[in-house]
Write a structure and sequence with these properties.
By secondary structure, this protein is an alpha/beta fold. The protein has twelve helices and 13 strands.
Length: 332
């Protein structure tokens, strides 16, 4: 009888992408029925990967979580592996399995008091067979930072799967011809300090000094701080053709679906984005990706924890690097 495992990844898109190399290796090496408990953000990608027999979706609200627990209790899992922070999502405690293991992420910014740590660990041991404590502050202080994929790998190795060293996950690419196109993702990180000026200068420089077209993509509920940047720019439609001879063309793609976003990224020669989900989607597609890290939020630490797993990319840091000069040196 095939054994059943439930993997909980009910957080951000990038976190799921960093977990996929481990899940792919797990599927290749072991005959298992793999269920994913995902956030609504991760659901679409999870279904497209074909790695999971079932995908359950976490939804906010006590009633929704109660229904989710009832449905998952019927599954009779052999293992439940929680890869995500708890963030008060205590429904995870009540999903039964023969063996349950969970990560416990402690603050990266300040040391967790020993008494608090012991109480949390004692409480979680009532519901899990093993708790893998991730001491992020101590890791930062001792320069012993663990990458998110390695954390997930460690969880699975703890319960005996011995997965070795996974390769980087590659999403099946769409059948789109690569164009002289730069995609710039309008993450809210562009809005801090003077960064919006860098963004506007970068768009202008690419538009007038290169033969690349530009597509700007937005997050959901785009911040009004981008209004001046996108003012007068035509909306992009997914069925539009991008001509390599169409100079000085800028388009704005407002809140694309994940599928359409992947299609647009897959058409690009370069993807430029602050560190966020876009950086992981682009490198998952093996695109030439320029990732810009936040100079105010421990850029080296975030890079070591969350860099795309076994993927090539260029790392830049706001303020530390002249963003416009560096990128234009590549594109010219």
């Amino acid at each position: 009888m095939i054994k059943k495992i439930c993997i909980i990844r009910d957080d951000r898109l990038g976190d799921l992408i960093l977990t996929l190399p481990v899940i792919e290796t797990l599927k290749e090496k072991h005959a298992l029925s793999i269920t994913l408990l995902a956030s609504s953000t991760n659901q679409i990608l999870a279904n497209r990967t074909k790695l999971f027999q079932k995908v359950y979706v976490f939804e906010k609200g006590i009633i929704n979580q109660f229904k989710l627990i009832l449905n998952m209790r019927k599954e009779k899992f052999d293992w439940v592996v929680n890869c995500s922070p708890f963030k008060n999502r205590f429904y995870k405690l009540f999903i039964p399995a023969n063996n349950k293991i969970s990560s416990l992420f402690l603050s990266r910014y300040k040391k967790t008091h020993i008494i608090k740590k012991l109480i949390i660990h004692w409480f979680l041991k009532k519901f899990f067979n093993h708790i893998e404590v991730i001491e992020r502050y101590e890791g930062r202080m001792n320069n012993n930072i663990i990458h998110q994929t390695e954390i997930v790998l460690k969880l699975f190795n703890k319960i005996g799967f011995n997965l070795g060293s996974p390769k980087g996950y590659e999403y099946k690419k769409n059948s789109f011809q690569e164009n002289k196109l730069v995609v710039i993702h309008l993450s809210n990180s562009w809005l801090e300090g003077e960064r919006i000026n860098d963004l506007d200068e970068l768009i202008k420089s690419i538009n007038y000094d290169t033969d690349y077209s530009i597509i700007l993509t937005s997050e959901k509920n785009m911040h009004s701080g981008f209004n001046n940047t996108i003012n007068g720019i035509d909306l992009f439609k997914i069925d539009e053709e991008i001509s390599n001879n169409d100079k000085q063309k800028i388009s704005f793609y407002h809140e694309p679906t994940l599928d359409d976003w992947i299609k647009v990224l897959d058409m690009a020669s370069y993807v430029i984005t602050p560190e966020c989900g876009c950086s992981h989607v682009a490198t998952m597609l093996n695109k030439k990706t320029i990732i810009i890290y936040d100079d105010n939020n421990f850029p080296e630490l975030i890079n070591q924890e969350y860099e795309p797993y076994k993927k090539e990319y260029l790392k830049l840091v706001f303020k530390k690097n002249n963003i416009v000069e560096k990128i234009m040196g590549i594109l010219r």
